[in-house]
Specification:
This protein has 113 residues and is mainly beta. The chain folds into two domains: 42 residues, N-terminal domain of TfIIb, CATH 2.20.25; 54 residues, SH3 Domains (SH3 type barrels, Roll). It has one helix and 13 strands. The longest helix is centred in the N-terminal third of the chain and has 10 residues. InterPro entries: YjdM, YjdM_C, YjdM_N.
């Protein structure tokens, strides 16, 4: 028996190859391996300091005092940040902190609340 992948939609083992596509006879799903690899790479996963996956709208807690450039005070440990938004870049959390305004944080300095 050949080593064809199971269907990614219904997990059927009865897939067959049709040219450059794989076809599932049970659910009629068609795919190629290159598009499946690209879809898996496009998903960005942002994790907090404890390894929990963060999502848009989550509430996080700062785990270390963070100095803010141009501000006279720092963001204290234990500060809760509500309704975060995940963005691309080095500072991958975009949020609004009371007393500081709009900020960008690194996910390694927060934990999911």
């Amino acid at each position: 028996m050949s080593n064809l992948p199971n269907c990614p939609k219904c997990n059927s083992e009865y897939t067959y190859e049709d040219g450059s596509l794989f076809v599932c006879p049970e659910c009629a799903h068609e795919w190629n391996l290159e598009s499946e690899k690209e879809n898996n790479e496009d998903i960005k996963v942002v994790k907090d300091a404890n390894g929990n996956i963060l999502n848009d709208g989550d509430t996080v807690t700062v785990i270390k005092d963070l100095k803010v450039k141009g501000a006279s005070s720092s963001i204290k440990i234990g500060t809760k940040v509500k309704n975060i938004r995940l963005v691309d870049g080095d500072h991958n959390i975009d949020c609004k902190i009371d007393g500081f305004g709009a900020m960008e944080l690194k996910s390694e300095f927060v934990k999911k609340a």
